[in-house]
Design brief:
Strand content: 15-25%
CATH superfamily of the largest domain: Periplasmic binding protein-like II
CATH class of the largest domain: Alpha Beta
Largest sheet: 11 strands, mixed
Helix content: 25-40%
Number of helices: 15
Order of helices and strands: EEHEHEHEHEHHHEHHHEHEEEEHHHEEH
Radius of gyration: 20 Å
Shape: globular
Distance between the termini: 55 Å
CATH architecture of the largest domain: 3-Layer(aba) Sandwich
Length: 406
């Protein structure tokens, strides 16, 4: 079955993202991340957020026959707007991914990009009869929320035999969400700036180095966790777990120290754009960003690192997964779709379309990934907590952070 080669008309389209400094404007962009919207009170920053929670916003990338929600041969899939949209040919990659599944199963897939916020919020806002069969893109912080709200059906894919058990345990030990990709948060930094400032970003504990240096703090950019950007929330989790379990210090000391100097980005896409344009010398992003730069010929002007203390590197593992939604009329087909996400066909394309590590450990990585900070050398701070604990604590952490900067 043929599908239309169409890009969703949203502000987070993969073609909207600016390229790194002094590079060609024609290359594809890194993936925008889902975000929730709140109000921030960072010093010298005023953000007004106007949201209409009564409207259900979505863009239908692939059309499907009327009545798909009651047809066992028709699958409704919700995902983020840039799903498989960060490769050299994003539209073609998405079409091929869906076409391959449709042809193999004799089914029809309705792929819908949700746009009212994060995926869990969209599930909560959905009207009766508009729920998906499968939701793709829940992460280690939002998966427990979807599970706790009773939206998901446990499913243990036979393809999980190739997936490290740690990935499953760090996103959904009860198998309500199946991981298909993962990565580590990292601090991207301008190599020249770092060398000129004592290597305070690349060597040792960047958290304490930034907290102790106004020069570094003014050039340190991260997505605002108080605006609900998922990368910002993951950064907050990284900082809290690192301070509490590694440094054995009060986690609020870092944000108290940097609050007078930092102006967080509203979302990851904005922050990456500002960092790439040279407005900031460092940015909290992903350790695969250097691989992305090398792959597309952007050069070696930047690098990425994680927190280092007493000879050990510490990072926060980001995990994306897919789940079956309770009440689906196409559960068997939905299970096949989740299996498909773990197939060699999909897994082999994740590194250069999603810029994450494939969940199936045996998948071959492109040589550009040799430039990334080796994940085998990173101690995952997720191991010091559980998905449900981090998800529940997130509200407390953001409340404390709001008090710090108010």
């Amino acid at each position: 079955m043929s599908t239309a080669d169409t890009t969703p008309p949203t502000e987070e389209s993969s073609t909207d993202h600016p390229t790194p400094p002094a590079q060609s404007s024609g290359a594809p962009a890194a993936r925008p991340r889902p975000r929730r919207r709140h109000v921030t009170l960072w010093v010298a920053v005023v953000v007004v957020v106007v949201a209409s929670v009564g409207a259900y916003g979505a863009y239908h990338y692939l059309s499907a026959p009327k009545g798909c929600s009651t047809n066992s041969h028709c699958l409704v899939v919700w995902t983020y707007s840039s799903f498989f949209g960060s490769g050299a040919y994003p539209n073609a990659s998405r079409v091929a991914l869906i076409d391959n599944f449709q042809n193999a199963t004799g089914s029809t897939v309705q792929l819908t990009y949700v746009s009212t916020g994060d995926l869990v919020s969209d599930l909560k806002l959905a009207k009766p009869g508009t729920m998906p069969d499968v939701i793709v893109g829940l992460d280690e912080l939002t998966a427990p929320q979807a599970d706790a709200s009773g939206f998901l059906i446990p499913y243990s894919s036979p393809a999980l035999t190739g997936v490290p058990s740690s990935l499953v345990g760090q996103i959904a030990p009860d198998h309500t969400v199946t991981p298909y990709e993962w990565g580590y948060l990292g601090v991207d930094y301008n190599v020249s700036f770092d060398a000129a400032n004592g290597n305070g970003l690349s060597q040792g504990d960047f958290f304490q180095n930034v907290a102790g240096s106004p020069t570094l703090a003014k050039q340190f950019l991260f997505s605002d966790p108080l605006l609900g950007d998922i990368t910002g929330e993951e950064f907050l989790a990284w900082e809290v777990e690192y301070y509490q379990n590694v440094l054995h210090k009060n986690w609020t000391t870092f944000f108290s120290a940097v609050a007078p100097y930092v102006h967080p980005a509203a979302d990851w896409s904005t922050g990456f754009s500002e960092f790439s344009a040279g407005q900031y010398a460092s940015f909290v992003s992903y350790t695969t960003d250097e691989a992305y730069n090398i792959y597309f010929g952007y050069g070696t002007w930047m690098n990425s690192t994680v927190a280092q203390h007493a000879g050990t590197s510490y990072g926060w593992k980001t995990i994306y997964g897919a789940g079956l939604v309770k009440g689906t009329h196409a559960q068997s087909l939905g299970e096949k779709f989740i299996d498909y996400l773990l197939s060699p066909t999909v897994q082999s394309q994740i590194p250069v379309n999603e810029w994450e590590y494939p969940a199936v450990a045996s998948t071959t990585l492109p040589s550009a990934y040799d430039w990334s900070f080796p994940p085998s050398q990173i101690s995952a701070l997720n191991d010091d907590t559980t998905p449900i604990q981090s998800s529940y604590q997130l509200g407390y952490w953001t409340s404390e952070l709001q008090n710090i900067i108010a």
